[in-house]
Amino acid sequence: MTATLPLEMGENEITGLIVNACIRIHRRLGPGLLESVYEQILTHELRKLGVEVLPQEPIPLCWDDLHFDRAFQCDLLVHRKVIVELKSVESISTLHRAKLLTYLKLADKRVGLLVNFSTALMKDGIERIMNKGPSLF
Q: Is the pLDDT reported for residue 3 higher than 60?
C-alpha cells in the first residue's frame, strides 16, 4: 500500500504530479482512447504516488431553498484541491474552459486542469484554469 501525501501539499506540486502522469500515460498509449480509460489509468497512476483522487466527484449547487447534491460531477478531484477535466476530442472549446471554471467556482477551488489526450504532444493538450473570483457560497 502506498503512503498518502500530506494534504498541505500546494496546488503547484499537485498539478506537477498530474501533468507528469498525463505525459507518461500519453507517451505509452497515445491519443484516441475513451476519456473513461484515461480517467481510470490517471487515477491509478496518481494513487500509486500516494495522491488522493476522487473520480466522478459530485459538485453540489444551492439556489435559494433548492439544493442539488449532484448538480455537476467533475472527472477527478485531486488531493481535495485540484479539479481535473479529461477530454479526448479534436480540440478544446471555450465551452470546455467555461465548464471547468464553473466547477471551480461551485466547488470553491482555485485551480483546475483541462486535459485533452487527443493531441500529438501531451504538453499541448493541458491547460491550467484559475478561479480568481469569489466563492459562489
A: no
The answer to whether the predicted template modeling score (pTM) of the entire model surpasses 0.85 is yes
**Inter-residue contact 32 to 118 (CB < 8 Å):** yes
CA distance 136 to 108: 7
Total structural domains in the chain?
A: 1
The answer to the question of residue 135 being in a domain is no
Domain that holds residue 44: 11-130
Distance CA 52, CA 114 (A): 18
- Asked if the model's pLDDT at residue 14 lies above 70, the reply is yes
The torsion defined by the Cα of 98, 8, 134 and 65, in degrees rounded to 10, comes to 90
Strand partners, 84: 76, 113
What are the grid coordinates assigned to 77, written together? 478531484
Distances in whole angstroms, Cα of residue 107 to Cα of each of 42, 62, 73, 89: 21, 11, 10, 25
Encode burial over 44-56: b for 16+ CB neighbours within 10 A, e otherwise: ebbeeeebbbebe
